[in-house]
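Continuing from yesterday's entry. The apo prediction looked reasonable, so today I'm repeating it with zinc ion included to see how the binding region is handled. Same sequence as before; SMILES copied from the compound registry.
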Amino acid sequence: MWRLIFLGIIIYLLIAAFKRGMLTKKQDDLNVKKGAPASEKKIETMVKCAACDVHLPRSEAYLVNGDFYCSKLHIPK
Ligand SMILES: [Zn+2]
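Holo prediction written out below.
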């Protein structure tokens, strides 16, 4: 008789541990999603090279006479 009760307690503990493990995993997933929001990534304005129509970030473009260029080679002399 005691064996059955002991077995029942072990099964109960296993189920409880399993459920807790599932909850912890779910919470971790949520934390990961909250920790890395997509909006945190800075979205930079893209500009088009006036010579070759290549799009590139504004910070990497050369601005000459109101036109953007992807490289110094494309800036008209
Ligand atoms: Zn270009």
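Comparison notes:
- The chain has two domains: 1-37, 42-77.
- The two ends are 97 Å apart (CA to CA).
Will overlay with the apo model tomorrow.
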